[in-house]
């Protein structure tokens, strides 16, 4: 429509003006044959040059290769070995306060909303095709071996020694899959989730164990390689004792074909594994700051995974270790100054170790100002991975988002220039890696790793989240070092190191350059907002516009938590945001009507319950509202988010001031329109579980 076209023209005009003001920081796309003259944004050029010369993707990949030798289950001997390796490297690199933590992982200790899973140590597993003849078991062929491929044994399997016939039950998640079949002392072959099937196959129908080729990460490529073996999981908290072997599609198809042809297939399964009280062993280390050393910028990853787990997530662990090595060396050599704030490095088991640290050591968590989290940052072209620089959610507006995007955009520009033959001052190419452009997607908030704990409403720590997705080999036996690109590790390390240094050193004199960066980013987001708004009803559009403008201003105000905002910048911001509101038409329609009754109730968070509702194998909400159907919001799919996204943010928006209808407005602005009834129902479920309360 005409109004939108006019607004679009204004956005373009302001983008051009902002780009001219910022051209000393980031150059425009290069034409062929023109050498790059770009300077690194936000941090001093000598610091950028020092980082580029010291960071090594090859060094990172060497550490990665060692980590991938270990089957790094939480609370296991191999995880502890990996933790001790990382700690030893950190000490060798000159870091201080290096610690391997000991936190109970016993099946009942609560860390906020996370119940600690017990440790799990697998030692041996084999699956054999056999023939039973006159009470003798004659081995015919070995189907699976833990020694060869640890991923063949589903996590939290228990010890067993079973010889039994195999029965195909299809998906295995409904009674109909078992109709008319005898399962006593049998093994079942299935393609559905193990946790769903176990209650039927094991508990109800008496099977002794399971075999599965279930894909737990479905991408466009998941059926292309029939030899991939995918990681499976049983329930760590279940009292039942059972086991499951994971098969490739090729293996499962061969067995199904034999069974369909009427053949009796007998298998011998041997497992030695145990769930047991253990400890979480996250590793932390420090580069101490100077005048603001009690404030910390965090670099995080997750150390646990099945072997080899190269991209997920030895890549993130090795990359932040490389950042630690490089920063420590550059400081020791006098090439960069010691940072004002301290830099804390954390190597936890995914999500649950982070929750344990947050709740066992709240004073330490209270020093965290922001986090750069890396989870899968090294996938080579063969993995089909797209590299993302994601940011904090709408519930946590912050300038930190634009810091991560600024460095991601810079490396995009420089790596593009290099790949096109135009040089580039910062190509960041490893001798052991590729030369392709990074082409990072500078995206919005995305759940999926420890970043969602930092940004959760109980903790509100801004996060820059570097990650690969999709990845054709995630959670499979082919997530190997051979599929990791050392150049990509090096570039991820630069984005992380530059971001952490800017945040660790940020002072008032840095704010003008930051503000220039933020204006450009705001206008780019405004263009996206206008495109999305055009698809909404007038009331939805008005609500979306209102929340968008509020979040942009709040992101600017967050600067004050890191550095004093100069008066000149504040005056500029006042003018800018007033013009922005006029440009995007802040009152183009009537906002969504406020609801009455339950939907008008204002909710406050129960400070005694910290963390999100679902944390790795434990559902706090379900456990505290037994007997009812799951809230419908959890299965809702919106324009830009799933039920899990909406539920996460609905809880985060609870602040003792917003009503259910206002929370609905916020969630709608972030992920797309959602019905008020779904949000109100979810808030009532949270109240029943004692997570929130009606505010006075």
Low-confidence residue ranges? 1-13, 15-34
User: What distance lies between the first and last C-alpha atoms, to the nearest angstrom?
Assistant: 45 Å
Q: What's the CATH topology name of the largest domain? A: Aminopeptidase
Strand order of the largest sheet: 1-13-15-14-16-19-17-18
- SS element count, helices: 19
The overall pLDDT average reads 92
CATH architecture of the largest domain: 3-Layer(aba) Sandwich
Structural class comes to: alpha/beta
What is the CATH H-level superfamily of the largest domain? Zn peptidases
Short summary:
The chain contains 19 helices and 21 strands.
Description:
The structure is a single chain. Helix content is 38%, strand content 17%. The strands form 5 sheets. The chain has an 8-stranded mixed sheet. Strands 6-5-11-7-8-9-10 form a 7-stranded mixed sheet. A two-stranded antiparallel sheet has the order 2-12. Strand 8, helix 5 and strand 9 (209-212) form a beta-alpha-beta unit. The protein has 696 residues and is an alpha/beta fold. It has 4 domains: 2-25 and 509-567, no CATH class; 45-114 and 280-506, Zn peptidases (Aminopeptidase); 119-276, Glucose Oxidase, domain 1 (3-Layer(bba) Sandwich); 597-694. Helix 7 (310-332) packs across helix 12 (486-505) and helix 17 packs across helix 18. It is built from 19 helices and 21 strands. The longest helix has 23 residues, at 310-332.
